[in-house]
Every structure is written in structure tokens, then in C-alpha cells.
Design goal:
alpha+beta, six-stranded mixed β-sheet, 19 strands, 43% strand, globular
């Protein structure tokens, strides 16, 4: 996909925002061309895009004139947006790059020979990386994201009515006092076609968005990390998303500790460049 990377145009004092929409695992993600925005301006752009495209669940900012970089509207880390950015920077062709995410994390990412976009997940290496809160409920800390993993034995009662999941997800965020985090995901797990499936509810503090997402890369990672932690060995898992698509999580354990996490999967795009006036 070849894109004119001039993100900002002016017409009679009106700013024209240009962006594309990617679908990593079915998780609609808008990538805006241009990164020189204040936090408040990012929030305004985020809200305008989401108002125009109700299917979009997160907004990131990239600049093809600079070294690979991704900034999220809410300052959170997003694995699916990072995979999408890698796919755009590499024009969906096989290769590896480093992406600076939110001006703090340098993330290895790329596209493999099977056209899967992948990225490493920035891990938190403290002793409380994974904490058991209750039977079947774990807190997983990552840089820029915290996940509550609710295993199937507990989640099943909440999944009886998925219309209430966002409200239930927020109740867990409040219960465990996680409101301080840049972003929190609550992963309700179940089994589908003999594979693990997640139902992700994700809240981003700065822009105050709450979605029952169609797919979640960080949540996929957290669920696989819990399984790796419980089994005490490296693990690769295909995890089904609400979209029906699969994201693969590869969790590496060394010396009894989780040392690396990588997610990969398809990123779809119609190659359309949208514009919106602000």
C-alpha cells in the first residue's frame, strides 16, 4: 500500500486529518497520518473519528516521513495498533522494524512470510507481573496496560448475558483499584471449538473509552501469560477473538520467569485513505 504521508492540509483555516483503518484480528483501528499533536488534540481527533466510524475501537498516530513511530490517543500500549503500524510502514511486505511507541518503548515488530503482522509486547518484570486475586482471577501487569484475566470457571456466569460485560468489566476495575492505569482490560475467557476464546472489555483512562472489543492483542497476551505461569513452561496459543479471528501468542519462559511475549496474526485493510475536517 503506497500512501502520501502528508497528513495535514489546510483549506481556509480548516485542518484536514488523514487516516486509514486497519483490522488487526477484526479490531478496527484508525491510524492518523501525523504525530505532532497535543494530548487534548489527539482526544478531539479520536472522538471525531469514532463518531464518524462507530466500528473503530482505538486511534493511533503515525508519521511516514519519520522513523517508525506510533502514538496512541490515550497513551496506552496497544498490541493490535502496533501490529497495524508495522503493516503500514512495511507496506504489508515481509520485514522487521523497530517502532517507538508512545515515545518511550522501542518495540520489535514486522510482517512474516505468511503475511502475519507481529510485535513484541513490552513486559513489566516486577515480582508482581502476575498476581492471583481470587480463584480463577489473575492480574497481569504490562508496560502501558493492566489486564484482569477471568478464567472460564469464573467467567461463565458473566458470559450468560454479554450485553452486561462492559458494566461488569468496570466493576472489576473498581474492585481491584486499577483506575490509576493508562489502560485496563478485563478478559472473560471461555472455550470455543476446543480453543480458548476471550471476551475483552477495555477501558482507556485519558480518553475515557470503554469497549467490548472485537479483538485485543494485549489481552490475548495476558491470557497466554497466565497459562504459561500456571504450567511453568514456554507456550504458544491460538486464541479466538470475538471477531472469530485468531491471534497467536508466543510466551517465552526462561529461568522460571516470563522473558518475552510476541503476538501475531492477520491485519486486513481496504487501503482507503479517509479525511475529516476539524
Amino acid at each position: 500500500m503506497v500512501i502520501n504521508s502528508n497528513a495535514l492540509l489546510y483549506n481556509g483555516g480548516i485542518e484536514i486529518i488523514r487516516y486509514t483503518i486497519c483490522k488487526p484480528g477484526g479490531n478496527d483501528t484508525a491510524l492518523v497520518y501525523g504525530t505532532d499533536y497535543t494530548s487534548n488534540r489527539k482526544k478531539i481527533i479520536n472522538n471525531a473519528i469514532m463518531a464518524r466510524h462507530p466500528n473503530v475501537e482505538q486511534v493511533g498516530f503515525i508519521d511516514l516521513n519519520k522513523k517508525p513511530e506510533l502514538q496512541m490517543a490515550g497513551g496506552e500500549f496497544c498490541g493490535n495498533a502496533t501490529r497495524s503500524a508495522a503493516n503500514v510502514y512495511l507496506s504489508a511486505k515481509e520485514g522487521n522494524i523497530e517502532i517507538v511507541v508512545n515515545r518511550k518503548d522501542i518495540i520489535n515488530a514486522g510482517v512474516d512470510c505468511m503475511k502475519n503482522a507481529w510485535c513484541e509486547i513490552p513486559l513489566y518484570y516486577g515480582d508482581d507481573m502476575i498476581t492471583k486475586k481470587e480463584d480463577g482471577i489473575y492480574i497481569v501487569k504490562m508496560n502501558g496496560m493492566i489486564s484482569v484475566v477471568i478464567q472460564e470457571n469464573v467467567a461463565s456466569k458473566y458470559l450468560e448475558n454479554k450485553d452486561d460485560l462492559k458494566k461488569i468489566g468496570m466493576s472489576f476495575i473498581h474492585k481491584y483499584n486499577l483506575d490509576f492505569s493508562e489502560a485496563v482490560g478485563v478478559m472473560f475467557c471461555e472455550t470455543s471449538s476446543n480453543k480458548l476464546k476471550i471476551n475483552p472489555v477495555v477501558w482507556v483512562k485519558t480518553i475515557d473509552t470503554l469497549f467490548y472489543e472485537t479483538a485485543c492483542g494485549s489481552g490475548t497476551t495476558a491470557v497466554a501469560m497466565v497459562q504459561t505461569y500456571l504450567e511453568g513452561k514456554s507456550k504458544q496459543m491460538d486464541i479466538i477473538q470475538p471477531s472469530g479471528m485468531v491471534i497467536v501468542a508466543n510466551i517465552i519462559m526462561q529461568n522460571q520467569k516470563i522473558s518475552k511475549a510476541i503476538i501475531s496474526g492477520k491485519v486486513e485493510s481496504d487501503s482507503t485513505i479517509y479525511s475529516i475536517e476539524l
